[in-house]
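Researcher: Let's try something more involved. This one mixes different molecule types, so please make sure each is placed in the same coordinate frame as the others.
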Amino acid sequence: MTDLVERFVKNHKLENREEYRELLKHLEDPEAAEYVRVRAVKLRERHYGRAVYVRGLIEFTNYCRNGCYYCGINRENQRAVRYRLTPEEILECCRQGWELGFRTFVLQGGEDAWFTDERLAEVVSSVKRAYPNCAVTLSVGERSYESYEKLKKAGADRYLLRHETASEAHYACLHPSEMSLAARKQCLRSLKSLSYQTGAGFMVGSPGQTYDTLAQDLMFLKELQPEMAGIGPFIPHQDTRFADQRAGSAELTLRLLSVVRILLPAVLLPATTALGTLAADGREQGLAAGANVVMPNLSPRNRRKHYALYDNKLSEGEEAAERLSALAKRVKALGYYLDMGRGDAAEI
Ligand code: 5AD
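Model: All components are placed in one shared frame. Result:
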């Protein structure tokens, strides 16, 4: 194996951006990619054994004040059918999830002003009251420090907020001018300082992405040390300005999952829905590349199709929480098992 790849595997980091760029270039060689994949799987097993953690995803609102160019529920999309679950409906999703064995609920939504701090905090605390041993993860975008603090006090344990890209220039290709990478990073630092288990991450193959911007993503993750990392392919949505752009590649996504596993050995790393959407066995391949989390969909069935971040987004089959046993079977066939516990990040 090349010295650079060996050194990365041994040290879990490289010295600078050029080296990360080189690493990605080296991984175009299938032999190098396979080497890194095997090492990533070993690390995952060292920290988490053969467990695959399960999170129940509740997509509770697709109203959004942001205009992210890639996203199907961005505010400009007049064709999106908007919905918002009531607090009672959110609790009912949790109840169904609890019955199915879920012990972690991820409440995800667009940046919807209806969910003020007070309303959202009330949702979080009522979920925690009803299911005290469950972990609640929020994924509702950028908010103030005070807001994150209130939600933490209400009982939220974790927060997912992808940074999307760590390159200023690339960030500006993907977002309208009122959004900034600096603001996004500030939110992530606030979340960390409030002791949320924090998730960052990025899409693979988003328009304008290069090995150089990916190198910056890897360096940013290494510096932030998030407990979770969400990495999935970009997939175009027909009603966005990126409708005619190419989707990211499953292969590069898989390589990056392995790289991120080596970079942050104890990170919680989902095999994303987007990867499952792009390739029939995408989720399995993700697990075989070093991922260790799956997030079946617990949203009300009649709403799922409306949470369309990209075209053809999976929400049926094994993506659906009701089909947990089918998912368990596929995971078992890989030599892993579904762990329905809280699945906190491992200590290293
Ligand atoms: N393709 C893939 N992922 C997308 N996301 C948003 N739009 C798309 C798309 N078109 C991802 C973003 C966001 C997460 C909730 O979904 O990275 O952070």
